[in-house]
């Protein structure tokens, strides 16, 4: 495991994270985390950012197979421990865990799949830009980005505000609102390929591919 000093703001929340998600948001929330995983192929290199407790990792690893590799970056040591505990030993051999909160800790690899699920919503705007900038050097024209996150649905605003305030209190996240996700994907040359809507649109999953000419030909394959 690659370990870069990072405070564990999820230490108290981690043991209850998955059960709280199921209690508050239901089965559709869990289903959104498996959306588009079927696009992962044997031998793929997969980058998971902010993977939390890794509820979908067994399926993800089975799909990329023994010849594939998952780089799993998470700022919380408690979440990494939960993820590792949930994986069989043979699956653990396919994972490189990175305990860090800065994107410069990512290895110099090209990835076939990037996954961010309920991760961008906790990052400040400048760090989202930094993430996209960092990712551009680690993908090529064939890379897909699997994304899932919350959206500001009018009928769910009270719940959304309560969730944001709770995370600000418990995990010290700075955001008071949701990012304009599409603006970042468009800015950095990613085009939506398909989407899936859950809970009337309160949370959504999308898969993106790179638009033509958005990657420097010298760095793509």
Automatic annotation (TrEMBL):
Residues 41-153 form the Methyltransferase domain. The keyword Methyltransferase applies. InterPro entries: Methyltranfer_dom, SAM-dependent_MTases_sf. One of its GO terms (biological process) is methylation. CDD domains: AdoMet_MTases. Transmembrane segments: none annotated. Keywords: Methyltransferase, Transferase. GO terms for molecular function: methyltransferase activity. This is Class I SAM-dependent methyltransferase.
């Amino acid at each position: 495991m690659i370990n870069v000093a990072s405070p564990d703001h999820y230490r108290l929340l981690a043991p209850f994270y998955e059960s709280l998600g199921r209690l508050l948001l239901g089965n559709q929330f869990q289903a959104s985390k498996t959306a588009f995983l079927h696009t992962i192929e044997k031998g793929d290199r997969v980058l998971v950012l902010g993977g939390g407790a890794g509820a979908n990792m067994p399926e993800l690893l089975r799909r990329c197979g023994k010849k594939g590799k998952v780089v799993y970056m998470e700022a919380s040591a408690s979440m990494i421990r939960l993820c590792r505990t949930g994986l069989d030993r043979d699956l653990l051999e396919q994972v490189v865990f990175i305990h860090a909160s800065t994107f410069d800790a990512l290895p110099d690899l090209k990835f076939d799949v990037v996954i961010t699920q309920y991760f961008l919503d906790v990052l400040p705007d400048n760090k989202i830009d930094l993430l996209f900038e960092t990712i551009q050097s680690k993908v090529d024209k064939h890379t897909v980005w699997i994304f899932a996150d919350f959206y500001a649905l009018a009928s769910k605003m009270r719940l959304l505000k309560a969730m944001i305030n709770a995370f600000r209190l418990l995990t010290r996240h700075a955001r008071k609102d949701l990012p304009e996700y599409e603006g970042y994907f468009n800015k950095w040359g990613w085009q939506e390929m398909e989407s899936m809507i859950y809970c009337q649109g309160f949370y959504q999953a999308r898969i993106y591919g790179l638009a033509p000419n958005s990657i420097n030909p010298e760095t793509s394959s």
